[in-house]
Automatic annotation (TrEMBL):
One Pfam family it belongs to: PmbA_TldD_3rd
UniProt domain Metalloprotease TldD/E N-terminal: residue ranges: 26-90
Family matches, as InterPro entries: Metalloprtase-TldD/E_C, Metalloprtase-TldD/E_cen_dom, Metalloprtase-TldD/E_N, PmbA, TldD/PmbA_N, TldD/PmbA_sf
Protein's name according to its UniProt entry: TldD/PmbA family protein
Domain Metalloprotease TldD/E C-terminal, chain residue ranges per copy: 231-447
Family (UniProt): Belongs to the peptidase U62 family.
Matching Gene3D superfamilies: PmbA/TldD superfamily
Residue stretches making up the Metalloprotease TldD/E central domain: 124-224
Top-level taxon of the source organism: Bacteria
Amino acid sequence: MLSVTAAQERASALIDRARKAGADAADAVYVGDGSTSISVRLGKLEDVERSENEHIGLRVFVGKGSASIGSSDLADAALDELAARAVAMARAAPDDQYAGLAPEDRLARAVPENLDLVDDGEPDPVTLRAMALAAEDAARAVAGVTNSEGGGASSGRGVFALTTSHGFSGGYETTSHGLSASVIAGEGADMQRDYAWRSARHLSDLLSPEEIGTLAGERAVTRLNPGKLGSGSMPVVFDPRVSGTLIGHLLGAIAGSSIARRSSFLLGKEDEQLFDPVISIHDDPLRPRALRSRPFDGEGLPTAPRALVEGGRLTGWLMDSASARQLGKEPTGHASRGASGAPGVSASNVHMAAGTLSPAELIADIREGVLVTELIGQGVNPVTGDYSRGASGYRIVNGEIAGPVAEFTVAGNLIAMFASLVPANDLEMYRAVNAPTLRIDGMMIAGD
């Protein structure tokens, strides 16, 4: 894996080759990563994995035609062939009036601020193994846990660099650390499984192995002997483990590419009151140490914090340059880039602001409802907003958690769900998309 400086130099060299081969404009991206992961089960080492990958991608424009191509071979001869093939492909490609590099006057020019995305200390395999064993041991020590699917620990490092033919060159490095445990409680047909995990840029930001393991064990035990829910309309409360998925559906719907394709359930609703006026949702790509922080986007535009929802209303769409041109607007610094292909659209570190009620207060007046802690399947229609997913969790009776339930479906429409959504005050900021406990009244339950 190259250093950030060397990665920028390789990307710049590929741009030069593309221009010499006949490209009118081009950009090149380097993505490199390396990681070590250790998994254990029942106190014994089960797997050690080390992976290293690097890839360079080239996008070229010839007239209104464009093409993207990539390679894991970074040698000079390979770059020569890559550039020639990309230009030949672009000459044969159909015209695309919206394709092109980001506006030159919008490119990031300032020195990227320090987002503290690199942990200088990298744990060795022996340390990772000890962490995984400690997490599994803590989980297996919880009364009622009868078996284990294992514990795991990982550490990695990555480099991203982007260079364009019209003056942008930037790169940054990241580190990542992960810790998990998954165990089984009960016996035979009554067995229940659950897990806990954490991921962070810095090792010190993880929960301890003992906390991870204990949490996994306690979750599995509390799921034992699940009951059934009857069918009907009732309040549904989404635990923070799953509440962020509702924001994920919002993010997909406000992507400029979805709006341009007319494939979003929010099409034409940008001026409507979607949420209660107290609801706000924010995107912060410059939050130190966060999982999706980045100093510039996938096209070289500067990134900045932004309210996505303010006063319950959308503030606009998330756009890369292509979707912005198609919609007659300006790009918003939300272009995302993989190792190959054209840019897409994505948010960064997103959170819904916490409410004022504790989770206990949020459910206090629910006579009969359900707390969802796990969602199954992908039953969401991005065009209509119709929502239907398998779930498991806990019954709520007279304002109290009354016992585990499983094998039921929660259904509704995201427009109506957003309108009735009420957040609790238990927001935690360790995921890429963070939300507190959320209550939505009037959802349909399909159970027994």
